[in-house]
């Protein structure tokens, strides 16, 4: 197996892309050498950006050893990521990078470079706004999930996706880390013993653990459609009018509502940070908070509307006109989504893993307040979700908990 380096990448590309022109200046960079803000993290894979005056490409190689941690990891992830991107591109080409070729023998694929867009997480950290983000992400999730579900596909194609995207090894990371390890991880003591005691008190509550186990069961057993499974704001690149989703190696056939909840959780963490980090003025803080809540609302409402449109246009005949079926699916999403949002923020907030959404806050007291608020919202939406009928109910919980928390400061 060849291992791609800066020295051999040009002859490799010329071999697989005969029209690749290296007669003009070529700039080669490795994702991970720059800042996270510029190109993401590149923790696991070897990712190279190759730029010429004519085109810009990204080459991604999955080896059996993680790039940063040096831990063993399954190489089949590269093949599954390529295949999931092909499927998602076929459904929503406007939201997925174009693929150039795949080299299965060497666990490599090449795609268009979308670095003209910005990594959303780090732009949100700088209070940048993406007006279409909620609508775009809601459309991406609803269309791809519906079109890979049994409600749309033949039984044979649906079962084929289940088998192909088992993704057992990478799924195990999420099944354990997100749903279980938050009860065994080291709480971040850098925010003080009082915060650690507060977080530990929540983490030891059996009621919350029961809710996580219920969500984990769905995550492990519900093969509703093909989901991204790691759809956080570092895996979304955007401008004011464009959006692309990347990094799909965790993709598998999972429950409706998981990706939606995962992304909502990230937006909630940004909201909590915005409550306490520095802004040029209180008016700009207010505007950014309003934007984040509007994005959460747009994301959820677009998902529901788009899924409904897909159903009305393309659902299989046996389900067409079946009263109450679509409504029951969307209601289940409305209940599960806040739980998954709570889960992802809970784990990142109590552990000592860097969380850029909060790490951007320089003042220790402000960072602690933002994190405590996040945990309180996580708790509130986990148990309030059974009564939610719409995005308005979720947003009401967020605002209400913030108001109560400020009274205690």
From TrEMBL:
Keyword Transmembrane helix: no
Domain Aminoglycoside phosphotransferase: 217-265
Highest rank taxon of the organism: Bacteria
Alphabetical list of InterPro entries matching this protein: Aminoglycoside_PTrfase, Kinase-like_dom_sf
GO molecular function: ATP binding; kinase activity
The family this protein is said to belong to: Belongs to the methylthioribose kinase family.
Protein name stated in the entry: Phosphotransferase enzyme family
Organism expressing this protein natively: Anaerobutyricum hallii
């Amino acid at each position: 197996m060849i291992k791609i380096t800066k020295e051999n990448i040009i002859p490799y590309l010329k071999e697989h892309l005969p029209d690749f022109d290296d007669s003009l200046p070529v700039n080669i960079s490795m994702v991970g050498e720059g800042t996270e803000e510029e190109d993401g993290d590149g923790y696991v894979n070897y990712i190279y950006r190759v730029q010429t005056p004519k085109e810009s490409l990204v080459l991604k190689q999955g080896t059996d050893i993680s790039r940063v941690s040096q831990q063993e990891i399954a190489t089949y992830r590269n093949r599954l990521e390529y295949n999931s991107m092909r499927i998602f591109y076929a459904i929503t080409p406007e939201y997925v990078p174009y693929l150039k070729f795949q080299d299965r023998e060497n666990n490599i694929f090449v795609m268009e470079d979308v670095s003209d867009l910005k990594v959303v997480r780090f732009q949100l950290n700088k209070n940048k706004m993406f007006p279409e983000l909620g609508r775009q992400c809601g459309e991406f999730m609803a269309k791809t999930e519906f079109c890979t579900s049994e409600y749309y596909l033949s039984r044979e194609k649906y079962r084929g996706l289940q088998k192909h995207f088992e993704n057992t090894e990478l799924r195990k990371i999420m099944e354990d880390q997100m749903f279980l390890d938050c009860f065994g991880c080291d709480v971040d003591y850098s925010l003080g013993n009082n915060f650690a005691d507060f977080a530990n008190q929540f983490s030891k509550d059996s009621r919350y653990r029961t809710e996580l186990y219920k969500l984990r069961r769905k995550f492990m057993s519900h093969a509703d459609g093909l989901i991204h499974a790691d759809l956080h704001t570092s895996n979304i690149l955007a401008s004011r009018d464009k959006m692309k989703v990347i990094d799909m190696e965790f993709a598998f056939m999972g429950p409706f509502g998981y990706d939606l909840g995962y992304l909502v959780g990230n937006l909630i963490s940004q909201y909590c940070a915005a409550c306490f980090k520095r802004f040029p003025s209180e008016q700009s803080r207010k505007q950014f908070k309003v934007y984040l809540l509007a994005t959460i609302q747009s994301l959820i409402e677009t998902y529901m509307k788009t899924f409904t449109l897909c159903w009305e246009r393309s659902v299989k005949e046996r389900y067409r006109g079946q009263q109450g079926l679509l409504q029951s699916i969307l209601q289940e999403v409305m209940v599960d989504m806040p739980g998954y949002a709570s889960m992802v923020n809970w784990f990142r907030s109590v552990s000592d893993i860097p969380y850029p959404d909060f790490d951007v806050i320089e003042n220790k007291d402000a960072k602690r307040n933002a994190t405590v608020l996040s945990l309180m919202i996580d708790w509130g939406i986990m148990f309030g979700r059974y009564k939610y009928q719409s995005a308005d109910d979720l947003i009401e919980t967020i605002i209400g908990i913030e108001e109560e928390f400020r009274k205690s400061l």
